[in-house]
Input
Amino acid sequence: MDEWLLGAFWRKWVKSTFLVGGVFLGVLAAALAQASGSLVLATTTSTQDSGLLEALLPPFEKQNGIKITVLAVGSGQALELGRRGDADVLMVHSPQQEAAFIREGHGLARRSFMYNDFLVVGPKEDPAGIRGLRSVVEAFRALARAEAQFVSRGDESGTHVKEREIWRKAGGGPKGAWYLEGGTGMAATLRLANEKGGYTLSDRATFLVWKKRLALESMVEGDAILRNLYSVIVVSPRRHHGVNHRMASRFADYLFSPSAGKIIGEFGKKKYGQPLFRLLPEEKRAPVRR
Output
């Protein structure tokens, strides 16, 4: 079979089966966590791909004598694990999906604690001519007119949801061979866009971590619509009786502590010249129960 066709088939298979696989892993992880007394954290891939979790979790684990089992998936998949009671706490970045999760009674509240932003990245040749545009909506329109290769995560993640929002504002969903849905996490999507010489939407943290290994450059950034807000949600023990509510609540509180804030605020500064995530101002951290 042609290598490209085989790769396309593989990505389609991964996309179509990812939910089942993610749920299976969540069930297994939850069962193991209940047996061992650990905490199951379902989180977006950017917190893991960026390396933030490696810095953020060990102090909490040491202080509480507990092991955190991490399920790094798209935000949509993380929320689905929460709906099934297969995670104790969620760290996600898809506000509309999070609000629905709370309304359905699966989570106690949504507490936003940090943010970064999304970027449109692409090959330095920039065949669509979008470099430096101030409006990401205009950039997406230009991509569609040029039918420039675009790689979408296509995985119901927070990044994918944001991408679809931008396409709607740009006039509708993209169609054609130039638009490829990878069904993969952010790092894998960046690698695929790099392989195809195409564009993609990325969170800043993951792009900066991978930048030296890619021939992609930032093309469009700074538009208000590209803000990327991260929240923590404790799964409701009233709805899901088997969750480790006590430790999940303690972990959520930890994310708002000075020690965690220092880790988040300084993460990436030395290596990348800027923090990969920024703390949300205190006045904007109130829990949202809707």
